[in-house]
Design a protein that fits this description.
Shape: globular
Structural class: alpha/beta
Largest sheet: 6 strands, parallel
Helix content: 25-40%
Strand content: 5-15%
Strand order of the largest sheet: 3-2-1-4-5-6
Order of helices and strands: HEHEHEHEHEHEHHH
Distance between the termini: 16 Å
Number of strands: 6
Length: 210
């Protein structure tokens, strides 16, 4: 499902007698139609996934809290994991950070539509994160680590942008830029669904069969 994984295998001599193709994972819910969002002075960032060290959630929290105190922004974190309670305690006095715990997949479109940008701050190798495509399906740009399979999904300034993986300062700079460039975020959001071509479930199955 990623060029990264294809290169990883071929560079190590795996599957020498096979034809290897990159077939992206499908988007499991239909792209949403464009919608006019109400003007909100607060920039809403989101994270959806495991609350674990390798996913970079603690880094995201640190980067967000490094924003200037007068920055009008919120961070909405959805997911479960071994770091959840610890991070909730650490941020208990920060009213800008909201923790939801595990959420049902069927509610993701409604949640994503409320965000200005989704953050994927992974510290580990990632292959082809489904949440990026789900974000695109909801017209939400993505701010992501410039690491392996993640980076190849991001077209800088078109459907989101990347930051130096593991670097809180780099991520803070991206978050701060986003709060002062809301029209640019909206433009990126309007572009995201163009990057879903060929990724419907029916197209995915047809390609596997071919």
């Amino acid at each position: 499902p990623s060029q990264f994984l294809r290169d990883f295998y071929t560079s190590r001599g795996f599957f020498k007698n096979s034809t290897i193709q990159v077939v992206r994972n499908p988007v499991m819910f239909a792209p949403l139609p464009p919608s006019v969002r109400p003007v909100n002075p607060v920039t809403r960032f989101g994270y959806i996934g495991q609350i674990e060290t390798h996913k970079g959630v603690a880094l995201l929290v640190q980067a967000f809290q490094n924003l200037s105190a007068d920055t009008q922004a919120e961070l909405h974190i959805m997911g479960n994991g071994t770091q959840l309670e610890q991070l909730k305690m650490q941020t208990a006095t920060d009213a800008r950070i909201h923790w939801y715990g595990r959420v049902e997949r069927k509610t993701l479109p409604d949640i994503l539509q409320t965000l200005d940008a989704l953050v994927v701050p992974s510290l580990c190798y990632e292959n082809s994160p489904t949440v990026i495509f789900e974000s695109f399906a909801c017209h939400v740009p993505v701010i992501a680590s410039n690491i392996e399979g993640i980076a190849e999904l991001i077209q800088e300034g078109e459907n989101g942008f990347t930051f130096a993986a593991g670097n809180a300062t780099s991520l803070t700079e991206r978050l701060a830029w986003s709060t002062t460039h809301r029209p640019d975020l909206a433009r990126m959001g309007a572009n995201t669904q163009t990057y879903l071509a060929g990724l419907s479930l029916s197209e995915y199955i047809a390609r596997l069969e071919t």
